[in-house]
Amino acid sequence: GLGNRGVGQHFKKKITKIVEEWMGSNSPYDLVFTTGFDNDQRKEMHQVARRFNLKSKSFGKKEDRHLTISKKFDGVSLVEELVRRGGETEKYSLIPPGTL
Fold it and tell me: Which helix (H) or strand (E) holds 45?
């Protein structure tokens, strides 16, 4: 993914720019990278996520492995965001106590 194999300065800058733009967009969606990145590239992507205090997780096996970066929410912030969005996002639903 993103051109050459391996983790050079160009790769690091490109991933950092992608993450910064995603964070600035206030997107409610996770940032999902396709398969096609090698182990070293995914490792760098995890490091970039940590530098921005984001969660990252790799899924899949071997050549089907992909990486997802998501924003961390504490419980209060998550509930506030859900209330602001009418109780539901693409990822979460707010279920009031006593309704189950």
Answer: helix 39-51
Q: What is the CB neighbour count within 10 angstroms for residue 11? A: 20
pTM: 0.72
Angle, CA 10 vertex, CA 5 and CA 39 arms, to 5°: 35
What residues in the chain have per-residue pLDDT under 50?
none
**Residue 19: other Cβ atoms inside 10 A:** 19
Residue written as token pair 């509930």: 79
pLDDT digits (tens, 9 = 90+) for 25-52: 877 789 999 998 999 999 999 999 999 9
Token representation of residue 44: 């760098």
